[in-house]
Amino acid sequence: MVPVAANVIHLLDDARQAMRELDLVCRPGGTTIIPTYIGRKGENRGHRFTTMAGRIGAGFRKTFTNASYRRFFVDAGYPDATYILIEGFIPCPIAVIGKKESDEHDAEPAW
Asked: Considering the domain 9-98, what is its CATH architecture?
């Protein structure tokens, strides 16, 4: 199984807790994939998009730039994550996090 949390990390009150939950379902040696929309530094396009999305119910808790998105994962304990940046009207970086065979984040799922 490859856990994917697509375009959700910016909507959560506690994104680090979500990362811990994703770790629970990712097998050792597996991969977690986390794409999200970001704004471009110095451009207002991303801000307009998040404002419009908020009006239709997508309440952004956090807005990221490419640099702050990468920093989020480093600070959350994933310094070896790799990133793919998809350019577009709203850029979308994809964080790819490999889980080591014996990872300190390992825990038995409660189920």
From this structure: 3-Layer(aba) Sandwich (3.40)
